[in-house]
Design brief:
alpha+beta, seven-stranded antiparallel β-sheet, 14 helices, ten-stranded antiparallel β-sheet, homodimer, disordered C terminus, 23 strands, 644 residues
């Protein structure tokens, strides 16, 4: 691993070691296209929406009630409601100066509720409340402290250390004082503090925060938490982190913990721990991940299922698990430099993170199903919704972790586009953007990326500034191009075929040089591993990184999505407005008294041949109640050559 | 509907009106075969097993603690633990004289805990406990009272009214006093009191019990219970019973409620209410029922899923839902005389009820999955298990409703075999049995049924006693015979083909006459409706009423059940020892880094051709940890003719 030199960039994640060095939010600007639109909506609508709902639901009011000594009677929301305020603060901090006033106001609200010793939580520890840390399983106190620390780090890096950062640091000191080697020998039921403490260590250079994070990672898996109905796997307290083989239990918890383990491994140079996280990621991606990148298939405990238990119709695929998966993938990419991590991050960004918020940024999916069987009703706009009803996006939830998690992710998104390794620049995610950074020798590099990705597959990189010596421009060739042809065109117009992984160009670039990456975004049929029982006999469509779906809104004759049969022997084609059109038919559902028949008596319903319009999955449910499918039944079923 | 004359038979369900009149446990004796073995195990092992675990877990002790005034400190088990003692008492009462001492002892334990006004519950109402009926959503007080009443009815009918029946009646009076028209305008979160009160009305002739049951049925669906996270549909408080279109929410609650609604409809002559229950049953059976007859596909809230959401690998199919479904089907059969209700009862008895207990009757499935992906570990024998881990049967659960529910069902099973309509006898379920009853004119009929059903398909009915006038013997021709040939052979040896429904023979039978029903039990491939997404591209095997499964125990080379591919173009054949053998292959799983591939790049794993042994589903997991599948992937996929 490489030692990163200390820098004061606006970095969401700033490892001091690792293969790649991230760029700061002050080094990358997204200037147009898919993510620019979403970031604009986030900055101009979602942040205020979240602030208003928290005020209305009393979650910000909890801090005022605590300061006034009335919290025992007046507290509102769930035990982790404080964390939403912190996540919103983090998002606002990354957004920068425009939100300085909001950050100051919210900081002024939370500040008086902090105890003199740094402890800050509105649900525990005051007269009439349960004592501090009396419920490590469900209390979420360290989880909340973790999000407070993340918000403080964001402020310090983005706007310079202020009151929020000072509150966060006092809280972190309290955590170290209380849970250190001589303190409470416990962990929090919901991981999060781990990665927060490492980031604070990176910001401040204070070893104690890193030590405490490492202690939390090592302590987990030894059964210090109670054996609840869901089992200790629910909060990863069943197996020590470095011995686990696959992610399991509550998906968000598992992913946050593993992100924290990567952080600890990188900072402490613990290659064995890093290898353990990579191994778990590999197994999870190979067997426990939806086509969208979504993770978590059980509604009951928001958990990963067994290997290959990935039902589209009961996909939980929590938005926060998508956020957490991107956090983990980004850390593994920085540590190893391997493009497979950016592949999964891309898939998850386009098909989970981008799916959650509505076009107006004022309602959200909490769970991201891949199959909706009946049209839902529009959720109430004036009160909180159940989190798992996936028919339409809702403005707010009783457990409303997802909106603020999406908000802080979109706010920091530019930082995920590119890195430097000292000898060059690596482009990982493609968007219309401007980049300006410096190589290890201090020489500046400026790039202008132009693309309408993911609609189009052409990415043009124009060199703005460059040292007068050779350096390497690396471009990720996404894994989804496998089996199709991707090309790289150098500044001299020479083109070559590139395969999934990394395409590199080493030369002395000159200002005005243009490099072009041409990615084959034509729509393709995708088939699932036969062990994904719930997708047997179906195909899906992917176009570039985008997963597509069929929505009843686009079907003729009032048909529902379940009527669709597609013919996989004909390739899907580009349709108008970003749609894809597939050959297929619509089968009229026939009701029977008993849905199981002897095979020799069974008949398939007749299908009327028609073209089926598909739309990007992230865009579904923006046109009123609908039914929807990602995996489309085939007729006749697809046959694949047998490998002997 | 026909008015039944008052009788004093040992009847679990004794409607005063309806198409068919049930036979009492004193009129039917199961003498051998499948159910005789299970009933023997139930009577000689399961009942004592349940009694011992309840004592050990402190659930019987709760009554002693209540009587001693120490229940606020000492109570153990969940809020509904009392009901297990009552269900065990009910089972013991149906078993008859052999359990008189146990019934007396347990009755002596519960009796001192009853309040002077008839209220009886160890979780509420005493100093230090929540007040009576302060938590109708989750408190289960009326549910417990309902099971107490059922136990009392069983004692009164089976052994003559004793102390248990008197306790039950006092409790029922208390319920009527408290929840009558001028009382609490509420319902219990868990239905059960409805059907119990109707049965008590039938026993005693007291109108007030029927009125109270009708009131509870009508009161539900108007949102008097809180709108919990699972929604009011969880406890059927979302839509009034007579307006609902399909069963929804918690499966056991939905089925108990509907059984109670049938009871009320029958006793009050409310044809509209009866029609509503039939309509809901039809929709539920057509769209929300597993091949096994199991109901409930969500682990999260133990609920029915949406239409056709029937994942084999996440089947909840709670044993108690099977019990409740048989209860409902039996009531609808008595009310209407339609054999389709007996069809579902048969399917559920053989594939859910018979599956739950282990061969020794000392461990149980709570959830009955149709697909087990990884071998479980043997559950602890010395402590309670999580209810939903379906890998192996467990001796007891923290929520242990299923063992006693199976026990009371097996104890009353003979009553489900046959009915009379006054003009004849109807055989609904087939077992080696002796029947003796009387027709409407008081003339006696005695029958001897000989069969090794479901192993064999031949059922021989020998007339023992018969009036010297024509009467009608009706035999159910199961729905599963559709498309194959069933025959009825009359006492003269004349045979005719019969089709699903009812085969009737009207004549003047003479003692010694033999009637033979020949049912085609050869194994057959079964296919699911294409809307059951989770079973697409698979087939199952049914042999007679038995659903079969493949268990890894029977596979060569240490293969797991997920390796199986079968060839549905070759019919499955009978194998040794009740097994079935199918042509197929075993596919070695190939791990990939990402389980989704472009269709043109995908290859199917090679399969080595081999015979696949299948065993009855009810017998699985009796030979140690295993993996298992009911629905078997096909290779090549099955094609079915298109209906134009």
């Amino acid at each position: 691993m490489r030692e990163n030199t200390a820098r004061s960039l606006v970095l969401p994640v700033a490892p001091t070691r690792g293969r790649l060095r991230p760029l700061g939010l002050d080094e990358v600007r997204i200037t147009g296209g898919f993510w620019a639109r979403r970031r604009h909506v986030n900055a101009t609508a979602t942040l205020a929406h979240c602030r208003d709902w928290m005020e209305r639901e009393g979650w910000t009011g909890n801090f005022r009630a605590a300061a006034k000594g009335r919290i025992d009677r007046d507290r509102r929301g769930r035990e982790f409601a404080d964390s939403e305020v912190y996540k919103l603060l983090e998002a606002m901090a990354w957004e920068g100066a425009a939100y300085d006033e909001d950050v100051a106001a919210l900081t002024g609200t939370i500040s008086p509720a902090q105890h003199p010793d740094g402890y800050l939580n509105t649900a525990f520890g005051r007269p009439g409340q349960p004592p501090r840390y009396s419920d490590l399983e469900w209390g979420h106190e360290l989880y909340c402290h973790g999000h407070l620390v993340q918000a403080g780090v964001a402020q310090a890096r983005s706007r310079g250390e202020g009151e929020l950062a000072r509150i966060a640091r006092r809280a972190a000191d309290h955590v170290c004082d209380t849970f250190g080697p001589g303190g409470i020998q416990g962990v929090c039921g919901h991981p999060e503090i781990e990665t927060a403490l490492v980031e604070l260590a990176r910001l401040t250079g204070e070893q104690r925060y890193l030590d405490q994070a490492a202690l939390f990672v090592e302590r987990r898996g030894h059964g210090t938490l109670a054996d609840i109905e869901f089992g200790r796997a629910y909060y990863q307290d069943d197996v020590p982190v470095r011995r686990a083989e696959v992610l399991r239990g509550h998906a968000v918890r598992a992913l946050y913990l593993t992100a924290g383990a990567v952080d600890v491994a990188v900072e402490t140079g613990d290659d064995a721990l890093l290898a353990a996280t990579v191994r778990q990621w590999e197994a999870t991606v190979a067997r426990r991940t939806y086509l969208t990148g979504g993770m978590g298939s059980h509604h009951r405990d928001e958990s990963f299922g067994d290997d290959f238990v990935l039902p589209p119709d009961r996909a939980y695929s929590e938005t926060c698990a998508g956020v957490a998966s991107v956090m983990l993938a980004w850390r593994l990419l920085l540590a190893t430099g391997e493009p497979r991590f950016a592949d999964l991050a891309e898939r998850t960004l386009f098909n989970v993170i981008a799916t959650s918020p509505a076009e107006d940024g004022r309602s959200f999916f909490y769970a991201n199903t891949l199959h909706r069987r009946h049209r839902g009703v529009a959720p109430p706009t004036d009160r909180v919704s159940p989190r798992a009803d996936s028919g339409l996006r809702a403005p707010w939830f009783a457990v409303s972790c997802c909106p603020t998690n999406v908000a802080r992710t979109l706010a920091q998104l530019p930082a995920y586009l590119a890195t430097t390794d000292g000898d060059g620049v690596q482009l990982h995610q493609y968007a219309d953007a401007e980049l300006s950074t410096s190589l290890a020798d201090g020489q500046g590099v400026a790039l202008r990326v132009r693309t309408d990705y993911p609609s189009g597959g052409t990415v043009t990189v124009r060199i703005g500034r460059s040292p007068a010596r050779p350096w390497t421009l690396s471009l990720r060739v996404p894994g989804w191009t496998a089996g199709a042809t991707a090309r790289l065109v150098d500044p001299d117009g020479k083109q070559r075929t590139v395969t999934p992984g990394t395409a590199q160009l080493t030369r002395t670039f000159r200002p005005g040089d243009e490099i072009r990456l041409e990615l084959p975004v034509a729509p393709r049929w995708i088939r699932a591993d036969p062990r994904v029982d719930a997708a047997r006999g179906t195909v899906a469509v992917q176009r570039g990184p985008l997963v597509y779906c069929a929505e009843s809104t686009d079907l003729p004759g009032g048909h529902e999505a379940d009527a669709i049969r597609v013919d996989p022997s004909t390739a899907p084609q580009d349709g108008p407005g970003g749609s894809v059109v597939a050959e297929g038919g619509l089968a009229g559902p026939r009701d029977t008294t008993w849905p199981y028949q002897p095979l020799d008596q069974a008949t398939a319903p007749a299908t009327a041949r028609t073209a089926i319009t598909l739309v990007p999955y992230h865009s579904w449910a923006n046109r009123g109640p609908s039914t929807m499918r990602v995996w489309l039944p085939t007729t006749p079923p697809p046959t694949t050559p047998t490998r002997r």
